[in-house]
């Protein structure tokens, strides 16, 4: 299943397939990705103090500090990592178990080179890239981490959340909040690919990771542990999808999670249109044309721990430097450009993913003749709730100012 959850009831991976996956892991290690075969993350370690404007400082010395780790800026090039999706999918089709049993293993996780192999890209964020072949299914389940899918393929398959079947397309964001029953599948004719983003490291640190696969009630066709849809396709969009209007008959939450969005399916076409409508506005000097995806029932973040957004960097535009105490993961949906992070230049293009860890100076530049669109995933809501969110900007003359969120 793509939500980064293993179950005790799943059949073990056949030895030949397991050996092939381990061999792929050895091959892929330099790319900072990890194929799902076994847990290998070391224990949580302490953070260290930031000491400079350009970087996150130096690891202190001493008995405690010697073992400290911190996430570092990193870029995962799609051209380098995406071939491993095909390799995983090939192993799945050749394994002597049904695709349903292999579907939860058809992904790799991104690993931050600064975190010593831990399965996360930043302090509280985990990202995986999943592929579903035609006919693949991930059975209905719910869990404690909040999760989302950012759709990269043109045909994005579907996710059914609390009885709402979300048929996905490129650029869509589909939420599976804590406490919601959901399942995934591909009933198309070509493979589908998406990014899974979770607050898993936070839940793991707090020791509250749990999973349930025993969904009550009637299941779908052939009792394959798939939900039978109980609301029309597009239910979220029809009910909550008009900005500035909140239906009073609507539920403020769905599932039994607290403070999560009842609007599950944010459509890429809507996001694109909103960015284009605002293109000629002045924009934010540090972000370009930026949008936040919000919980329509509260106006706040879609999860208590994670927030999502999109920004348009116009062709040739250079943003000013900014840093935040939160960490942000970016994926390039269209265009190309580069981001300077703590003095390092990271050049990105379509489907590339990069991370800006907490409190590092960064600025974006759109390259080429077209505008660039970046999607963002940040743990800012978590920092805000514990009183630790802070943002600063730097103008072209080097003057640093505090930014009020």
Structural class: alpha+beta
β-strand amount: 25-35%
Kindly state the number of beta strands.
24
User: If helices are DSSP runs of H or I spanning 4 or more residues, what is the number of helices?
Assistant: 8
Shape: globular
CATH architecture name: Sandwich
> Using only CA atoms, what is the Rg?
21 Å
Q: Output the CATH homologous superfamily.
A: Jelly Rolls
CATH top level label: Mainly Beta
Cross-sheet strand order for the largest sheet:
1-3-4-11-6-9-13
Classify the helix fraction into a percent range. Answer: 10-25%
Q: Mean pLDDT, nearest integer?
A: 84
Total domain modules: 1
Outline the low-pLDDT stretches: 1-11, 37-52, 62-66
* Largest sheet: number of strands, sense, barrel closure: 7 strands, antiparallel
The CATH topology comes to Jelly Rolls
Q: State the end-to-end distance.
A: 36 Å
Briefly summarize what is shown.
The protein is an alpha+beta fold and 405 residues long. The chain is built from eight helices and 24 strands.
């Amino acid at each position: 299943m793509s939500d980064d959850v293993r179950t005790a009831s799943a059949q073990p991976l056949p030895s030949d397939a397991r050996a092939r996956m381990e061999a792929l892991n050895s091959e892929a290690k330099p790319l900072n990705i990890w194929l799902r075969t076994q847990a290998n993350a070391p224990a949580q370690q302490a953070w260290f103090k930031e000491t400079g404007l350009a970087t996150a400082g130096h690891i202190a010395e001493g008995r405690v500090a010697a073992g400290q780790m911190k996430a570092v800026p990193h870029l995962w090039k799609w051209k380098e990592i995406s071939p491993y999706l095909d390799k995983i999918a090939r192993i799945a089709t050749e394994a002597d178990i049904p695709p349903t049993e292999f579907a939860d293993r058809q992904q790799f996780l991104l690993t931050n080179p600064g975190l010593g192999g831990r399965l996360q890209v930043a302090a509280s964020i985990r990202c995986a890239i999943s592929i579903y072949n035609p006919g693949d299914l991930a059975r209905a389940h719910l869990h404690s981490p909040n999760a989302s899918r950012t759709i990269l393929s043109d045909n994005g398959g579907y996710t059914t959340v609390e009885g709402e079947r979300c048929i996905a397309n490129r650029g869509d964001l589909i939420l599976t909040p804590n406490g919601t029953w959901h399942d995934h599948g591909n009933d198309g004719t070509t493979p589908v690919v998406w990014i899974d983003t979770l607050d898993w490291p936070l839940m793991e640190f707090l020791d509250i990771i749990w999973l349930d696969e025993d969904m009550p009630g009637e299941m779908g066709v052939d009792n394959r542990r798939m939900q039978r849809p109980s609301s029309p396709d597009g239910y979220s969009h029809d009910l909550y999808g008009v900005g500035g209007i909140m239906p009073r008959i609507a539920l403020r939450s769905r599932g039994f999670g607290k403070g999560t969005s009842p609007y599950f399916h944010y459509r890429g076409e809507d996001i694109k249109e909103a960015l284009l409508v605002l293109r000629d506005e002045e924009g934010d000097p540090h972000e370009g044309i930026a949008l936040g995806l919000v919980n329509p029932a509260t106006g706040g973040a879609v999860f208590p721990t994670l927030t999502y957004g999109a920004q348009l960097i116009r062709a040739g535009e250079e943003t000013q430097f900014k840093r935040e105490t939160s960490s942000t993961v970016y994926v390039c949906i269209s265009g190309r450009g580069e981001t300077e992070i703590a003095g390092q230049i990271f050049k990105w293009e379509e489907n590339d993913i990069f991370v800006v860890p907490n409190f590092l100076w960064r600025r974006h530049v759109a390259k080429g003749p077209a505008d660039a669109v970046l999607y963002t995933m940040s743990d800012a809501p978590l920092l805000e709730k514990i009183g630790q969110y802070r943002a600063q900007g730097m103008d072209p003359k080097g003057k640093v100012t505090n930014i009020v969120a």
